[in-house]
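Thread: Newbie trying to understand structure tokens

Hi all, I'm a second-year student working on a class project, and my supervisor (Dr. K.) asked me to get a predicted structure for one chain before our next meeting. I've only ever worked with sequences, so writing a 3D structure as a token string is new to me. If someone could post the tokens and maybe explain what I'm looking at, I'd be very grateful. Here's the chain:
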Amino acid sequence: MSKLLKEKLDLKEVKQIFINGIKDSTEELKIGFEYERLPILTENNNSAPYEGIDGVCEVLRLYARNENWDYLLDKNNIIGLKKLHNTLTLEPGSQMELSIKPYRSIKKIEQKINELDSALLPLLNEFDIKLLNYGVSVLSTYKNIKLLPKRRYHIMANYLWGILSDVMMRETAGIQAGFDYTSEEDAMRKFRLANMLSPFATAMFANSPIRGGVDTGYKTFRALAWLNTDSERCGLNLNLESFDDYINKILKTPMIMFQREEEVHAVNGTMSLEQFMTHEYLGEIANLDDFKLSANLYFPDVRLRKFIEIRNQDCVGKGLQYALLAFYKGILYSEKSMQEVEVLFKNYKPQHITELRYNIPKLATQALFANIKAKDIIKELLTISENGLNEMNEGEEKYLEPIQDLAYQGLCPADIILKNWYGSWNKDINKLVEYVSN
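---
Reply by user tm_fold:
Sure, no problem. This is what the structure looks like when written as tokens:
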């Protein structure tokens, strides 16, 4: 019994995780960036495999040796690399994700990504692999993409329900942005705003219309995949008001697995973390590590951590990846901008946001939000963001230009791809690959 008492999950410790994220002043607020891209084989546009002499694993092995990075291992399998605060990790279908140390400056983030890419991309060229700034696999589908040899991914793949969960895991790539908070009240306010903004950002950066070599009829097939993946752990949280509210969401979500030392044990939704706190399972009872793992296996569009993690955008390139950071920075790091967004949305209901989320995959910026089109709200949001950036006087409003050029025409990246697909590209997958490779 003493062992169980010692290990038992303490909700005060759980809440402290989020309290520890509180920054002392607005000067300490930084931006996190996770940049996930799709590796494909140059010779045939199929997804690059993990294994083999020309596989992604060998790229990581060589990169670690050349750049003095450490391996991240699952058993004896390389699943990523780490150096100081930067990681290069693999998602379930071997998508490559760069996650870098947070910075206040978007320019610093851009410079760091360019620095890491300058070492990574020549290696990829040696292996005849390209990284695509795109949201879904251009040619290979999940049936032809082998899961990474990471035990958690195999348990997840067996458990996650929803008709497109395999697509989400193996075929898709996105970009994620992280933003700090200065108090619990500030955290929940930003969390609520980010949830309201989320479908509009999905629309603005929609970039996955072609999948498996054909037009899917959707402008963001990646967003469609998330809509059809385990609704108990995915979606929006529009009504949470405290850290405790968010913690309770995780406690009540069916558990997928837990880990003890080197062993990973599948739970497969047979109990929640809340139940695991009071009932032994395999002779174990819930502890703090179980909460951390369950929090990582909770996949809403906006996730609360030691920061606000915004997760719902397709991978994009051509400067749009930094436009995303600028868009949210101009709103979430400006008191005036946050107030203006709150006023903009004050007459809309949560159901309007939820309905929009379901219409975005097909229509993107042309989707209806209540009785107007999303594109009209997007224009207002971009103006608010630009004003917020101007107020900060850090010269970062220029990063909005790539998305402004599209959004002010009512367009998203997918619209440009589809115009070319049926025009000068003549449905040539090679032309698409060339376009999203830079």
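A couple of things are worth pointing out once you decode it. The two ends are 58 Å apart (CA to CA). The CA atoms of residues 327 and 385 lie 6 Å apart. Feel free to ask follow-ups in this thread.
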